[in-house]
Write a structure and sequence with these properties.
The complex is a heterodimer. By secondary structure, chain A is mainly α. Chain A is 74% helix and 0% strand. Chain A has one domain. Chain A contains ten helices and no strands. The longest helix of chain A is centred in the middle third of the chain and has 34 residues. Chain B is α/β, with parallel strands linked by helices. Chain B folds into two domains: 264 residues, P-loop containing nucleotide triphosphate hydrolases (Rossmann fold, 3-Layer(aba) Sandwich), CATH 3.40.50; 59 residues, Alpha-Beta Plaits (2-Layer Sandwich), CATH 3.30.70. In chain B, strand 1 and strand 2 form a beta hairpin. The chains are: A mainly alpha, B alpha/beta. At the A-B interface, helix 4 of A face helix 9 and helix 10 of B. The complex binds adenosine-5'-diphosphate and magnesium ion.
């Protein structure tokens, strides 16, 4: 319990390269593709996808930190074994990893938000309109917790690092595409919409991020928060239990 | 409490322990340079370092005054003894899906002694160590560290123990120094204290020049030494070392032995597993020989040699006729090991001369018996993986 922040300082950070990626996304999709795309009721296409780009970046950084990053520390470096021989427990280690994954998500969101503001003022286009949009940054920490906890569950059950291919293709890629990221969710058949809301955390994250950035906060954001919180707690507890089973034999 | 299982010879060793409860004394005799106290010994630690000193002292005094042959444990009242026990196991058992890795073993490690677990691969040594430092829950039995149940009090237990695992698990992303600092955080050691200790410990394990080198550039011996330093960061009362010298060259091994003796002199309880008889004989006050999850023998290194093999060994080539003759004779204990006969006897010269009357015996060797001979006697010669 006490030493969670310890891990955060402990685990190293090299984040510059992946940051460029979402910026390029915004330029390419938002401005190039945006010239051809018109969405009724959402303003410019660039303004539509900006929140999605931030949300998917948070997802990627958090979930991958607790998949590949944690797996390397657990499996190859035996760091978890080293730590649980000290007064810290499996709970502490996993909590530290999840918090670190979420912290990375928070940092990404913060930097990207600043970049978006910068682009807005330099290019003179309207991407962010509401003062509420600042809340996107703290919200991304919650989103990061959710996705890190899910990633940690995959890590606990994966035997080799190649085993991550399954969750990658069956979960992360569809989530990236079908959660209202690059086109509105209501372009999909209603069954798919419901499914997306039911199983993909990113749907809720994108929804809230978008409503915060446009200032059009609606009641569905509340439902999404009410979805995110219990699901986060569930996966957090599940990941600790799975990890205990794996680490303590 | 039973103690009859410890063969005689044990009591002389107790005298050693007694001597070591005065670290200043013995250190100054043996080691003029003595970094000992600066190392783990922040000054307040030296006398108080070993909280049960007075108890064990009482114990040893009463033992030595009442004659060496008397049994230590019978003579003492249980509460005193309980205070002098670092680790106690009763019926300790571990199963992995039906495979019995540790088969209901009993042992007691006394405070301040160096206690060895000796045995071939797969004997259950690592599993036993992991149960002590709470990395593996036992299937059944009792396991106490300083009178506290390890599964009920894992944090307290782990705070007392420094661990050097069999598998190297240093953090490859950090330098030598930073590995120690990162580890110190898990014990809540304040940064400044940790830095001071880390510097001293790097000196202690002779890694000062490597302070800012990344882990991947260290040799195997350096890594083991760094792991030893890391295990000592929290100034533990008990240090568990799982095969601390396996795979090291002789120089590296001797350096580690030297450091461990230094620690023992300061009253740190050392629990060690090894496959090397030489290591066990040199370091351990008492040891257990394990095989297939069971304890097959225990005692001081000396007493085991006396009990299981004679004082000396005659080695000759294993010729069938000689074996037949020895078997007929029936008096001399012998093993056939790698094409050689090891004959355990107190009169090797006589036997050799006798055999030479009837057989041409080339390349004979006469030497003192060692713990290795005991090991072969007890665990057999088949190859283990
Ligand atoms: N995690 C595990 N799962 C299943 N079997 C194990 C596990 N760890 C050890 N064993 C088995 O337990 C036995 C004892 O192993 P171990 O304690 O590592 O022996 P030693 O350290 O003496 O070489 C071996 O047969 C080993 O295969
Ligand atoms: Mg082992």
């Amino acid at each position: 319990m006490r030493n969670r922040d310890v891990y955060m300082q402990t685990y190293k950070s090299n984040f510059l390269p992946p940051l460029l990626d979402p910026i390029l996304f915004l330029l390419a999709l938002g401005f190039a593709l945006g010239k051809f795309v018109q969405l009724g009721g959402y303003g410019s296409y660039a303004a539509f996808i900006t929140p999605a780009i931030i949300a998917t970046a948070v997802m990627n950084v958090s979930i991958f930190e607790c998949m590949f990053g944690s797996f390397v520390r657990m499996y190859y470096q035996k760091t978890f074994d080293a730590i649980i021989a000290t007064p810290l427990s499996v709970e502490d280690v996993i909590a530290g990893e999840i918090l670190w994954g979420a912290t990375k998500g928070l940092l990404y969101a913060g930097i990207m938000f600043a970049v978006v503001l910068l682009m807005q003022s330099i290019l003179g286009i309207s991407l962010v309109t509401s003062p509420l949009s600042v809340l996107v940054v703290p919200f991304s920490f919650l989103a990061g917790l959710l996705l890190s906890a899910i990633g940690m569950c995959f890590t606990a059950r994966t035997q080799q690092i190649d085993g991550f291919n399954f969750p990658m293709f069956l979960f992360i890629t569809p989530m990236f595409l079908f959660t209202g990221t690059f086109f509105p969710l209501n372009a999909l058949p209603w069954q798919v919409q419901d499914l997306s809301l039911a199983i993909f955390p990113l749907t809720h994250v994108v929804l809230i991020t978008r409503e915060l950035m446009s200032g059009a906060l609606a009641v569905d954001a509340v439902w999404s928060i009410l979805w995110i919180i219990p699901v986060t707690i569930f996966f957090w507890i599940l990941s600790i239990n799975l990890m205990k089973k794996r680490l303590i034999v | 409490m039973e103690s009859s299982s410890w063969p005689s010879g044990f009591d002389e060793r107790r005298q050693d322990i007694h001597d070591r409860s005065y670290p200043e004394q013995s250190t100054s005799i043996r080691r003029p340079g003595r970094q000992a106290h600066e190392l783990i010994g922040d000054p307040h630690l030296v006398p108080g370092w070993w909280p049960a000193t007075s108890n064990l002292e009482k114990l040893t005094n009463s033992t030595s005054s009442s004659g060496t042959a008397s049994s230590l444990t019978n003579a003492e009242s249980p509460p005193d003894l309980a205070l002098s026990i670092a680790v106690e196991a009763r019926g300790l058992r571990k199963e992995f899906d039906g495979l019995v890795a540790v088969d209901s073993i009993d042992f007691q490690v006394l405070k301040g002694e160096c206690f060895g677990f000796l045995g071939p691969n797969g004997a259950g040594k690592t599993t036993t160590m992991k149960m002590i430092y709470c990395a593996s829950p036992r299937t059944s039995g009792r396991l106490l560290v300083e009178a506290l149940d390890v599964d009920t009090f894992p944090r307290e237990t782990k705070a007392k123990i420094g661990v050097s695992p069999q598998e190297e698990n240093l953090d490859p992303d950090f330098t030598v120094f930073h590995n120690l600092i990162a580890y110190s955080r898990y014990f809540d050691i304040p940064r400044r204290v940790a830095e001071a200790r880390a510097e001293k410990l790097l000196d202690f394990v002779a890694l000062k020049e490597k302070r800012d080198v990344v882990i991947t550039e260290l040799s195997g011996g350096m890594k083991k030494r760094l792991i030893l330093a890391r295990a000592l960061l929290s100034e533990p009362k008990i240090v568990i070392l799982d095969e601390p010298t396996t795979g090291l060259d002789p120089q590296a091994r001797h350096l580690i032995w030297d450091r461990l003796e230094e620690l023992r002199r300061q009253g740190v309880t050392i629990i060690l597993t090894t496959q090397y008889m030489e290591e066990a004989a040199r370091l351990c006050d008492r040891l257990i020989v394990m095989d297939k999850g069971k304890i097959i023998e225990q005692g001081t290194p000396q007493s085991l040699v006396e009990k299981h093999v004679a004082q000396r060994v005659l080695e000759i080539p294993a010729e069938p006729e000689v074996i037949i003759e020895l078997e007929k004779l029936g008096s001399a204990l012998f093993d056939e090991i790698g094409g050689r006969l090891h004959i355990y006897t107190n009169q090797p010269e006589t036997i050799l001369a006798d055999l030479q009357k009837r057989h041409a015996i080339l390349r004979s060797v006469i030497r003192d018996a060692t713990l290795e001979d005991v090991f072969f006697r007890l665990t057999g010669r088949e190859l283990r993986d």
